[in-house]
Design brief:
- 4 copies of one chain form a homotetramer.
- Chain A is α/β, with parallel strands linked by helices.
- Chain A is built from 14 helices and 18 strands.
- The first copy, chain A, has helices at about 10-15, 25, 50-55, 65-75, 90-100, 120-135, 150-155, 160-165, 185-195, 225-235, 305-320, 325-345, 365-380, 405-420, and strands spanning about 30-35, 40, 45-50, 85, 110-115, 135-140, 170-175, 205-210, 215, 220, 240-245, 270, 285, 350-355, 360-365, 380-385, 385, 395.
- In chain A, strands 1-2-3-16 form a 4-stranded mixed beta sheet. In chain A, strands 7-6-8-11 form a 4-stranded parallel beta sheet. The first copy, chain A, has a 4-stranded antiparallel beta sheet with strand order 14-15-18-17, covered by helices on one side.
- In chain A, β9 and β10 (about 220) form a beta hairpin.
- The N and C termini of chain A lie far apart (about 50 Å).
- Chains in contact: A-B, A-C, A-D, B-C, B-D, C-D.
- The interface of B and D includes residues 167, 168 and 170 of B.
Chain lengths: ~425, ~425, ~425, ~425
């Protein structure tokens, strides 16, 4: 294999890749290897990965068991692409998912293999909610991010991304997430008033769709009370509850689903990112059986049912979810993470902690500060990104499997960079 | 790995997979191996594959060179998931694509890594056309299929699929494809009249989007004249030309792009299906450089840039497109295919041939007949599917790499099944 | 009452009236009186009126019987505004409409008082068709004009007008009217193929909506066969038939409804323009009783039920539709009109006759020629306007009650102006 | 003129008028005469009118001066219908409007003659805001009512009315009006946060559109501070301010415009209802000159420019707005109204006063109570209606010109009816 010696920024990318490319601009090097929480570039330099494919690599890069199972499957001429035909890879995945994920949690959801992207699982959820209810209106929330295809984009809050549509996107109402107006304002009560007012202009909802922790929106973590309130409101108004666990699920907050200790059972659950375990494209929609009213192929897609992903996803489930070892380790690391972030935040006047579990960060008050911190981190060997409406949150999404020492090492780099860029005084709200 | 002995129809799928599943209903067995044009089920039975992942496996299942390169990459801890960061796998793919695909064809398109599904590449194309022109209206065509997410679904003709949206999808006008009203009606002239009439109700177009051969729509193959006419019309009206080569591209019709002997250069070209070479999820949008006006991340996605797919796609390009061996072989097989289909069609009163290259089929006059033929084929070891608005076309999408003898063996099965189900008299149009 | 001496173009209008004003630009004078087919300006000059409020004055200006009845009603303190409460004026109108219009034609339609504008009656029709069928798609036609509010605008073909919406207007499909592709192309057969093809991209129709003669669209008059074909197609597809008789109805083509000799009974019939008889704002929607599924006030409006209009409309019905005197006179005048237009058209190479009844005109091949002709007519005392997608049709909409001599005098002016501006050679299609 | 003796409910209406009819159901008699605040039915019974055509008859029924001017105009063969051509009636109206309305208030707005319905003026405003800004999103408010045609309906809050559209209506966001969440919640601050948050999902606004007092929505009267806040927010976000004064304007709150003492000058002002003075269909849109970017006829309509309405509107302006007699009288009556409503409200546990000026009412806690009160009023000779999301507000919209004694007599009837139906205990919020 040939490659450019001058990493990334040079030649072929400028010449041939669309201007839409983005992460490579902040991390201008060419990566050639990756293992658990370490990425290595063409010059041999190692980086600690606190981005983890935006939570697509909860089990780290290239888990050895997944690698082995996948190599064995390929070597044995296992079916790589089979549309949605039955394969032994798929059978085994479904059985593992049933045994280790659904059954222990008392869930009887159906699994829909959507196209292998989060946005496709979200589109399927939106279509299904509309079909089930005969209504069009999906209630989405401020700072929500659900994807970039037209339907999902309608439910995404970001103005820059929405602008890409080039036209108004019908069928979605955006209401304030918990805390959107500050800690003092009970947005749930207001949403309830809006929904109960027959002259509010809010059309009868097909579904409420939200992320239990908003990954792109600034690591806003809704409380169990608030989500239960939304669930109750949805039920009362004949709407489905869609909890988009694409970024917050698969162990990221400490449990497989981010909501499982909240006392709610969503009707529809889009999953993607870390579902395959190894970062392979894979997405699914979990559907309460009574709402699985699809006709065959009513929503389909060429790559639904990525067999390679079935292999690695099965290994991930059997390895990490058959007992509570991972969960306990995540709790331990989350505690450390939280303690260190408290210290780090204290270096920035007005900074606040965001998120929960291994999905935490620091709101440093401005996008400029946050970007400067991340850039300095990269210079010192740490891959880390911002989040939030103004990119004002420095976001830690380290692999759940990161060794404790490496986690601390990364946090050391972050602390130094934060202190270097911390403004002297609190920055006024943008 | 465990698996169900009783293939497919049993247990876990009924219990757990959503009712949306489809192909597995027509091919009720569990596949465990696949090589080139042969799939093998759990009972050890071999099937000839005339479906090839709906043209996602143009180079057959599990090409040995791709397998080897991919296993080597995995074993070396190559980056599996890196968002859209630079990797050696990506660099090499881009260089191969530039060297063997773009340059020889005199094309200077940019490559946009969209989410790894065809529908995502189409959504990106539609958004970009709207952004470039400041207009919303995409002209799509009867019997077109472009995907299932809301934007692409708007451009898809199929009523059952469109119904899944649960609401009107704005921003698309559907006009008649070549031949939509029979061979005698010049739809190009009519489209021109509609576009030139300022009171036609057709809003100024952002783009014309069409498949050079309509895969799902019944293997309708537009002529070079017609497509050139559409290209000229698009130019005159300030609209972009989007040729969706997701199913018809990557060699399926005999050349890499299905349109390359037509004298048109599309502004935007969505690619997917066989792009990865081995059936891995992968999609891209080719963009004329002057229209690459994306802001960074204006359209993004977690799995854009599937590194495993970069590896196999590079091998595919270097192996099959550095010289004309494959193209010559395809021409040879397409000729045989055509001759045999003429014979087969002659068994069915009123049947007609559809498509071109290795994307041909027979319109047998009704969906019932076509389905019965395909079901009998499967009983005799041939995987084959229908296509068309009424599922009335038996469609052959064998791997381009299928050995001639196996191609003929498959066609023998098809011929027998067709003769068994051929109606005595011509069926009236549905 | 004060007024500006310098008619129209001066002072107050430039200073205060919005740039949206239009007709006053072509007829730059201030009118102060009008009787039957004559308008008189502030300087005392008389004009023959071949525009008649765009067919809102089919009985001419200020019919003496209507004037008297209206003055009596006002003088007696009759209810001017009563929302949709019962009044003696409304009762009498409804009884007259039932007796002289509905019963003799064997129609049992309900009468809905919509807001007093044609566009409001059209909006009501579109909403009702969607409610009755549970579908959203209204099939409208090339060159159709149905109004300027968002719903009706969606069904209007004119690009300039549609552009005013500032966004895509969902829920309408525009298909070719009879003759849209020339006399040789059977658009009905094509529409049928589009509707019968489940992959055409045309969503199942709630209604087909069309004008039997397209007033703004160029006086295109559909044949009985074509309209019957559309009616049959609507029925077969479970869609309603809406015949918009706003401009073509109320005697304009020789019968009260323009379609009554065609053998079709529309499900919904929007009426406006000449319905009040004297040019007062008034509109209604006729609804087959089985489709009158409105809930009270589900569509409402402050000025529905204009009592002054009820008074004049009743007089108009009783005076003109109790016997066939008017109809016979219209036939006579239409014949003369047609004969003269044949002569006039012969002066313009390539010119063609358009329309039927007292709704005829000449396509002179270009908007420039047509505008020049109309401007010259105005200089010589004739008010006349253009029509058509390119404003290429000189349109005669004289009051039905115009004296024969005045009709001929107007046509003399038109003939002279046409000869003055007739191009020497046929103009190529724009 | 014939009429039914048995008023209203009988024969012809059941037989012929659409089920959409509404007010006639609550006031089941046939009216034959009306003068100022008195309506008289066919049996000779008089009713006090506290509905006044939903504020279309601010100067009462059949003002003698308007009657005379109109009869004179008709008798003189004044132009009744002239599209938007200049007439002496129009000239005089424009001059009076400029002299007595615009100039004294320091306004230089252009006047656009829209179709003669409020909804048409609103549609024109929405289209123009979109055109001026190149954006699609209109911010409307809870409990707002702006009309029933598709565009205006999108901005109307009422679910029942919205449902009539039969599909999602794009391009409008509904946000909470002042007080929507109770007196303690500062909705302005929240709206500001939503607009300032680039990830709120609220697209950049073309305009903010609201009624200074919500007529249909329950007589909610926004404060000057709140409206000034919205005006400032609109300016900061590059959006237009549309104050819909259709029901609240033309003196209803004590000044010609309802906002003129608030220190804001709206960019666009839709007017209708009482604009003609006598209840004739008439609407207009006032446009700040810099935003009057219409092309000729870009928004048009047959009945724009109702000459009869020009006559009566001019008389109304000259008679009532040349000095402050009317305004002083309104203030006086509003005071009396307020005092009496305080008493009346005290009879109902939990009742609250709503509105301002001559647009006040009592929220009696439930639609059942309010309807019962209004029905009893009608039995005792008072025409009065409900308002509000749950029809829970008894609304007084007496003519501004009602004699003080008659106002008091009407309030006596209302008080008696209210006491008769007052619940013993406060009703819990619906």
């Amino acid at each position: 294999m040939t490659h450019t010696d001058t990493a990334g920024v040079s030649g072929i990318y400028d010449r041939r890749e669309s201007a839409a490319r983005s992460y490579c601009r902040n991390f201008p090097t060419e990566f050639v290897k990756a293992k658990n929480a370490t990425m290595t570039d063409a010059s041999g330099r190692d980086y600690i990965d606190f981005l983890a494919g935006c939570s697509s690599l909860n089990y780290g890069h290239n888990d050895a068991d997944m690698q082995k199972a996948l190599v064995d499957y390929i070597t044995a001429d296992g079916v790589t692409h089979g549309l949605d035909m039955h394969t032994n890879a798929k059978t085994a995945f479904l059985e593992a998912f049933e045994t280790h994920i659904l059954k222990p949690r008392g869930m009887d959801h159906k699994i829909m293999m959507t196209g292998p992207t989060g946005t496709n699982a979200v589109e399927a959820a939106m279509k299904l909610a509309r079909k089930v209810t005969g209504r069009h209106n999906i209630i989405a929330f401020t700072n929500g991010f659900h994807g970039m295809t037209l339907g999902a984009l309608g439910a995404t809050g970001n103005a820059g991304k929405r602008g890409g549509a080039g036209m108004p996107i019908p069928g979605v109402t955006h209401l304030p997430y918990e805390g959107a107006f500050g800690a003092d304002v009970d947005t749930l009560a207001q949403i309830e008033m809006m929904l109960d007012n027959p002259s509010s202009g809010i059309d009868a909802p097909a579904a409420f769709m939200l992320e239990p922790v908003q990954g792109e929106g600034g690591l806003n973590a809704a409380s169990a009370e608030w989500i239960k309130g939304i669930a109750a409101l949805a039920k009362r108004h004949g709407a489905l509850l869609i909890l988009d666990d694409i970024q917050s699920g698969i162990g990221r907050t400490g449990t497989f689903f981010s909501f499982e200790e909240m006392g709610v059972v969503p009707d529809l659950i889009p999953l993607a990112k870390s579902l395959s375990g190894m970062g392979l494209p894979f997405a699914a929609l979990l559907i309460r059986p009574e709402y699985d009213v699809w006709k065959p192929a009513e929503h389909n897609g060429t790559f639904r049912g990525n067999n390679h992903a079935f292999i690695t996803a099965r290994v991930a489930i059997e390895k990490f979810w058959a007992d509570d070892t991972l969960q306990n380790a995540v709790k331990e690391k989350a505690k450390v993470l939280n303690q260190r972030l408290v210290e780090i935040a204290s270096a920035v006047p007005g900074a606040t902690l965001k998120g929960r579990g291994m999905m935490q960060g620091v709101d440093v008050g401005s996008g400029e500060t946050a970007s400067a911190i991340c850039a300095t981190c990269f210079e010192h060997g740490l891959i880390i990104e911002t989040s939030g409406a103004h990119d004002e949150v420095v976001k830690i999404l380290a692999p759940l499997t990161i060794p404790m020492e490496q986690l601390k090492a990364g946090l050391d780099i972050l602390e130094t960079a934060t202190r270097a860029h911390a403004p002297k005084h609190k920055i006024a709200a943008e």
